[in-house]
Design goal:
Blueprint lengths: L4 E6 L1 H4 L7 H11 L4 E7 L3 H14 L2 E5 L10 H9 L3 E3 L1 H13 L13 E3 L3 E3 L8 E6 L2 E6 L3 H18 L6 E9 L4 H7 L1 H5 L5 E6 L4 E9 L2 H19 L3 E4 L4 H12 L3 E5 L5 H7 L8 E6 L3 H8 L3 H6 L5 H15 L3 E7 L13 E8 L3 E7 L4 H24 L2
Parallel strand pairs: 1-2, 1-3, 3-8, 13-14, 13-15
Antiparallel strand pairs: 4-5, 6-7, 7-8, 9-11, 9-12, 10-11, 15-16, 16-17
Helix pairs in contact: 2-6, 3-4, 10-15
Family: Belongs to the CinA family.
Protein name: Putative competence-damage inducible protein
InterPro entries: CinA, CinA-like_C, CinA_C, CinA_KH, Competence-induced_CinA, MoaB/Mog-like_dom_sf, MoaB/Mog_dom
Length: 417
């Protein structure tokens, strides 16, 4: 089938100029890269009748249609409802997505309103692309020989779904030219904007392979995609581009793949046969909760003590009154004592501690976002001070991710000795 693609952007905010539609240019470029011809771009507001008219027009003139936006939980997110009418099908609940939405709210202690259920609906008889970087999944439906793809309007989510799910799907159907080969490079200790600045000329002149930076939770990945007829040819293209990237930001290179930091840590602990324990204050058990969400964590995780108040720090952890009075609970001395106490009390090979100010009020001279994290091992204990930003829960989450990264770097240092 010769591709005759159309891209439809949904959202009144796009028509009002409140948001610049960068999705359409990015998606057009990616489709062009794999030999798929884009014939039409359309933008339509959040109006049922106008959406239906636009969808009908696209159905009659194109054979592959991409729709971005309108998949959220609010009343004006009408994309799926309108498309279901066109396709003469019903919307069903995807339990995987629904559980993910529920967990998102539960972990943040936020009440989930009923309208969030909309994000888990899919077309009966269609196909779901599960979204690993957001809530709403990507959807696919074939109607009267026309292939429809529905994607979130959030750029990060749309790009991930296209790169990881939709393009491989199209390639498997024989609708792209050549085969797509991927390689993901992971970097830590450098922000997405800084990394992009160092690679901006490579990104701007990219052809084959393509280069796609993407921020993760505590790390940054670069997704390289090469188009070639054979794997050997693709590997040559990928390796040359990887070498050029590493020549500029190789000091921050961590490894391959975009595995979350908690999974990386668990894998590293298992490889080195090390156990871990924790003593948490500001994180309130979030470090332990994140770890135990993974299967097989009992092999490496001993437990965590939550010492939230000064009384707990004094009476249970054993921090002296003089330290709490002179240095304070938010201090290097307190963090070090907490980590060393967990190490000896739980008999683990490593221990980590978290103490700090989540806000909204300051504690003494420490502003919200001030966090001390200590890692203890039988050979030595290290403590780092962090200045994190965001709201109360965001600071707590960032503290946990900073702790994962600190542990990964500490273990890597042990293995190099």
């Amino acid at each position: 089938m010769t591709s005759k693609c159309e891209i439809i952007s949904v959202g009144t905010e796009l028509l009002l100029g409140q948001i610049v539609d960068t999705n359409v240019s990015w998606l057009s470029e990616k489709l062009n890269d794999v030999g798929m011809n884009v014939y039409y771009h359309q933008t339509v507001g959040d109006n049922y009748n106008r959406l239906l008219n636009v969808f009908n027009q696209a159905q009659n003139r194109s054979n592959i249609i991409f729709v971005t936006g309108g998949l959220g939980p609010t009343e004006d997110d009408l994309t799926k409802e309108v498309a279901a009418q066109l396709f003469q099908t019903s919307l069903s609940l995807d339990e995987h997505t629904y559980n993910k939405v529920q967990n998102f709210f539960e972990l943040r202690n936020i009440h989930m309103t009923e309208n969030n259920r909309k994000q888990a609906l899919y077309f009966e008889g269609g196909y779901i692309f599960h979204n690993e970087v957001g809530m709403a999944p990507g959807l696919h439906f074939e109607h009267e020989g026309v292939l429809w793809f529905f994607l979130p309007g959030v750029a990060k989510e749309m790009k991930w779904l296209v790169s990881e799910k939709v393009l491989p799907f199209l390639n498997n159907k024989g609708l792209t030219e050549g085969k797509l080969f991927h390689r993901t490079l992971t970097f830590q200790g450098i922000g997405e904007s800084t990394l992009e600045t160092k690679l901006i000329d490579l990104i701007q002149k990219q052809t084959n392979p393509t280069i796609a930076p993407l921020a993760g939770n505590g790390y940054v990945t670069i997704r390289l995609t090469a188009k070639a007829n054979e794997e050997l040819e693709a590997n040559g293209l990928l390796e040359r581009t990887e070498e050029e990237i590493k020549s500029r930001v190789g000091d921050f290179f961590f490894g391959y793949g975009d595995q979350p930091l908690d999974r990386q840590l668990i894998q590293l602990l298992k490889e080195h046969r090390l156990s871990i324990s924790a003593c948490e204050s500001i994180t309130g058990g979030a470090f332990a909760s994140t770890l135990v969400a993974n299967e097989g964590v009992s092999e490496i995780f001993k437990g965590s003590l939550v010492s939230y108040t000064n009384d707990m720090k004094s009476n249970v952890v054993g921090i002296s009154e003089s330290v709490l009075k002179e240095e304070g609970a938010v201090s290097q001395d307190c963090a070090v004592f907490m980590a060393e106490h967990a190490l000896h009390m739980m008999g683990s090979d490593l221990a980590i501690s978290f103490t700090g100010v989540a806000g909204p009020e300051s504690v003494g001279l420490h502003q919200p976002g001030t966090v001390f994290i200590a890692v203890s091992h039988q050979t030595n204990t290290v403590c780092n001070k962090f200045h994190l930003s965001g709201g109360r829960n965001q600071i707590r989450e960032e503290a946990v991710q900073s702790g994962f990264k600190m542990l990964i770097e500490f273990i890597s240092g042990l293995s190099n000795k």
